């Protein structure tokens, strides 16, 4: 079952859901809008390898905006730190961004119960588009969980402080 916006607010107030910073005006009927930080990460090589760390570089998104190129993967992150040990967090793009051909979270929108950190966004566009920092770019929503469960404890992405490139190479170690 998905939490309503009113339930999200109630659980933020009781600290069962942490969203920092939190702005009550961004609550939707069944989700909460998250914003884009002012940095992006891009891979430097055209060929990526799952078994090794792939070299990246940071790009700043200026206040006046940045034009993204089609067919290129950009990694961004939310300004908001989120955490919950009671619900399953899920991340989706907003319909307003999707209608511009901007895909915010191409895969991996399913969060683990117990995840704490900033969300890395897999950003891809179908035509050139200008983006801006602090834009309400995606939405988080929460599912109830039933039955026994373990909290997310992986060291890969837990308690991150910045944009996280793929750490899949660690699966091969």
UniProtKB/TrEMBL annotation:
Gene Ontology molecular function: any one: dCTP deaminase activity
Residue sites binding dCTP per the record: 94-99, 112, 120-122, 139, 156
Stored Pfam families: DCD
Pathway terms, separated by semicolons: Pyrimidine metabolism; dUMP biosynthesis; dUMP from dCTP: step 1/1
Lineage: superkingdom: Bacteria
Annotated site (Important for bifunctional activity): 109-110
Reactions catalysed: dCTP + 2 H2O = dUMP + NH4(+) + diphosphate
Keyword Ligase: no
Coiled coil: none
Keywords: Hydrolase, Nucleotide metabolism, Nucleotide-binding
Catalytic residues, chain numbering: 122
GO biological process, any: nucleobase-containing small molecule interconversion
Transmembrane segments: none
EC number(s) from the headed UniProt entry: 3.5.4.30
InterPro entries (alphabetical): dCTP_deaminase, dUTPase-like_sf, dUTPase_trimeric
HAMAP family: dCTP_deaminase
Family recorded in the similarity comment: Belongs to the dCTP deaminase family.
UniProt xrefs under NCBIfam families: dCTP_deam
Subunit details: Homotrimer.
Function according to Swiss-Prot or TrEMBL: Bifunctional enzyme that catalyzes both the deamination of dCTP to dUTP and the hydrolysis of dUTP to dUMP without releasing the toxic dUTP intermediate.
Record-given protein name: dCTP deaminase, dUMP-forming
Species of the source: Peptostreptococcus stomatis DSM 17678
High-level lineage: Bacteria, Bacillati, Bacillota, Clostridia, Peptostreptococcales
